[in-house]
Design goal:
With 158 residues, the protein is α+β, with helices and mostly antiparallel strands. It has helices at 2-22, 53-70, 93-98; strands at residues 26-35, 38-46, 77-82, 103-112, 115-126, 129-134, 139-143, 147-152. It folds into two domains: 2-82, GMP Synthetase, Chain A, domain 3, CATH 3.30.300; 93-152, SH3 type barrels, CATH 2.30.30.100. It contains three helices and eight strands, in the order αββαβαβββββ.
Length: 158
């Protein structure tokens, strides 16, 4: 289902865009996965001041109606709408720009100077590059296109 799944996710993203815009919500991640014998469509959303449980419930109801009416998803599925959480994934350059100064964990597709994994603080993000300062104070310029996955890595004090 590889490329057809990507096409489906693009269609779902297009259908959901007006709903998310109406609710001033940002799509952080979208997943359509088969788990435990069932299909699950997951929206991870955020808002400027954070997303609430009430926001998720309202948006879920609205998205459910739109998606069901469209008929774009042929399988029975469960719809989940939630916050991206503390370990929010970072995908676009604007995500990195928004979180400059925050701790991040990055994995590259291909090694850079013999390394694929980087942990540190986002220094800047521009022109397709993300600068990350690691614990040794060395700054690494990471190509955005070379990032396989990245997420915030908050310094939790308990």
């Amino acid at each position: 289902m590889g490329s057809s799944k990507n096409v489906l996710l693009q269609q779902i993203e297009q259908l959901s865009a007006p709903v998310l815009q109406e609710h001033e919500a940002e799509l952080v991640d979208l997943q359509y996965v088969h788990e435990h014998g069932r299909w699950v469509l997951r929206f991870f959303l955020d808002k400027g001041q954070g997303i609430t449980l009430d926001d998720c419930a309202t948006i879920s109801e609205h998205l459910g109606r739109i998606l069901d009416a469209s008929g774009v998803i042929v399988n029975l599925y469960s719809l989940e709408v939630s916050s991206p959480g503390l370990y929010r994934p970072l995908r676009k350059e604007k995500d990195y720009q928004r979180f400059i100064g925050e701790r991040v964990e990055v994995t590259l597709w291909e090694p850079l100077n013999g390394r694929r994994h980087f942990k540190g603080t986002i220094q800047s993000a521009q022109n397709g590059m993300v600068d990350v300062r690691d614990y040794t104070q060395q700054v690494f310029a990471l190509p955005l296109k070379g990032i396989a996955k990245a997420h915030l890595d908050p310094d939790l004090k308990i």
